Amino acid sequence: MKGIIKYILAAVLVSMSWEASAAEVKVFAVVDAQKDIYVGQNFAYQIIIDGENTAAQVNIEPLLKYKPQFAGGRDLSQTSISIINGQSTTNVVKRYVITYYLTAMETGPITLPAVNVDLNGKIYTTNEVAVNILQPGTTDKIEIEQTLSQTSCFAGQPVLYTINFYVFADVGKFQFDIPVFDSNDFYIEDTDLKDKAAQLFQLPSGLKINVSQAKTERKGREAIVLSFSKVLIGKNAGTFELKPATVSADVVVGRSRSNDLFDSMFTSPEYKRFMVKSSELTLEIKPLPQEGRSRDFYGLVGRFTIAASASPAKVYVGEPITLTIKIGGEYLKPVQWPVLEQIPKFSEDFKIPQENASPVTDTSGYKFFTQTIRANNDKVTEVPPIPLTYFDADKGKYITIASSPIKLEVSPTRQADVEGGGESVPVKKEVKAVMEGLAANHEGQDVLINQEFSLAGAFLVSPLTIVWGVPFTALVASILLKVITANNPERAAAKRRRAALGKAIRQIKNIESAESRQRGEALAAALKQYAGERFDRTAGSLTAVDCFNLIADKTSDEEAAEKFKQLIEDCDSARYGAAELKIDSQMVRDVSHLLRLIDKKAKK
Predict the structure, then answer these.
(1) 32, 44 in Cβ contact below 8 A?
(2) Which of 86, 285, 297, 320 is most buried, with most CB under 10 Å away?
(3) Stretch 280-294: mean pLDDT, rounded?
(4) Percent of the chain whose pLDDT exceeds 70
(5) What is the pTM of this model?
């Protein structure tokens, strides 16, 4: 990065003087031509704004064929003070640099086209940039392999796609180019299985992968293998050719001795750039048949199992029962909450809350759904079977399986719980007569008047009624109101949904005051929290794809859902990659407008 900055400053000094640059705004593009650029490698393309130190909007469309990835902007302005004959002069040079990473797609000399830059409402056009792309050599020191869990499947059926990168020598920097990840023919999803030792890696396209490392033997040689997998789900039927995957890497080919007399005893590795490619693959995707498809089928394709458990098995009417549903399969992300309300025996015999807890997927290949249910009457004898419909890829037909029924023993509601402990029993107190003392001092019926303080008596005395009766009534009323509202989950959820938009917009407006490196993480957290509270989900478990599915389902606006998803992915890229996400006032307004649009459509 330091070399790039030095190159930028040198280019600027050649093009204009420091003083002249402050007088007018100039916008131009540069590429560090001092470094070799190989095909398949990404390189820095930089737009320099000379004379201003504010961010600008770049129309990157002319460079789309080079897969541009935004890497942030930096203010490189400088201030200098000169003193001549006792007079000090302050010179301010404004300069802002915007960086994109492009991917070299072909060998030979190429010309990067000019792009338009919108700076404070004025359009500037950059220069074209000439770049020479080199072809790296081939070597047996590295290999790359792409595999599929199966070469024939049905539409919607998940297929595991794996890349293995074998290394037989010391390597430096390397870069993958995986054409299937750029294909519009597949949905690309993460696998359910998580390797805790895997390292997060970001491809030039922005896609994040979890790379595992292990020692292995390859063709009789010891090697280090770097592996990662994704799930491919075909969008349409047909036969698809998966182009070869490539990897380019700096491989150690020897060691060189330093020319420095004092360092001549030491040697450093000498690297050379190589590139290898895998073989091509073919995947056949067959259409799902219409025959036998039921209304309960919602797209599950593959092989699945379902089981359920309930605890406790002995309860009284109305007492909570924890129901756990366990669904197993090769790929569990598309598995949805079973709709218990649509099962006749469930709707008749049990009270089922409208809110669902987020499911949990473990490493053993199961997805768990947990719900609290309550028996409506003491005639209930079991938790009925829970069905699951899917297309069996092995048998080539639709199948409905179900969990086994669970025996219950439900007793009538206990009397004490309803009536508060049964009938009241009057308490008799013995009246003791005082034989001495009273008669000696008082005469007449006054001695028989009960002068003892009581609540009933206090109600009859108007001053006391005003003093404590009004506050007491207000206290009782407030307690009743709180109990009625606070203990109602539906009202609490509705209140949370109504407040989600305002809360999210306040959080987003405050992001500008945070440190620049923390803004992306804060924005992603605010967006996920909005989606969770607005659509009754747990924010911490939501991914960008989950948010897309939620918003698209609730609003039927896939464009807005895609923008929401892209925002979260950009934030994640800024957090895990080298890119810096620019969050300014305009972006805050755009995000707030998007949330208002989603919220409005979700209410329809």
Answers:
(1) yes
(2) 285
(3) 92
(4) 80
(5) 0.55
